[in-house]
UniProtKB/TrEMBL annotation:
It comes from Shimwellia blattae (strain ATCC 29907 / DSM 4481 / JCM 1650 / NBRC 105725 / CDC 9005-74) (Escherichia blattae). InterPro entries: UPF0352 (IPR009857), YejL_sf (IPR023202). It comes from the Bacteria. This is UPF0352 protein EBL_c13280. Belongs to the UPF0352 family. It holds the Pfam family DUF1414.
Length: 75
């Protein structure tokens, strides 16, 4: 069952586009992009989520990430 979001697709797409633009502007390679985005997620969790909830949220995030990755051969 698809999850619904309290945020509009337009808002999500606008933020995604801006973040991608910053990475492209700096000609950031994929490995560095992933490192920076991972650090950003870690910082958000550690600074905005109650300590007792951090591991559960990180686990949920990791599961959502894994389920959204496709195993097709295109890249």
């Amino acid at each position: 069952m698809p999850q619904t979001s309290r945020y509009s697709d337009e808002r999500v797409e606008a933020l995604l586009s801006e973040l991608a633009s910053v990475l492209e502007k700096h000609k950031t390679p994929v490995d560095l992009s992933l490192m920076v985005l991972g650090n950003m997620v870690t910082n958000l969790i550690n600074s905005s989520i109650a300590p007792a909830q951090r591991r559960a949220l990180a686990r949920s995030f990791a599961e959502a990430l894994q389920s959204s990755v496709h195993e097709d051969k295109a890249h």
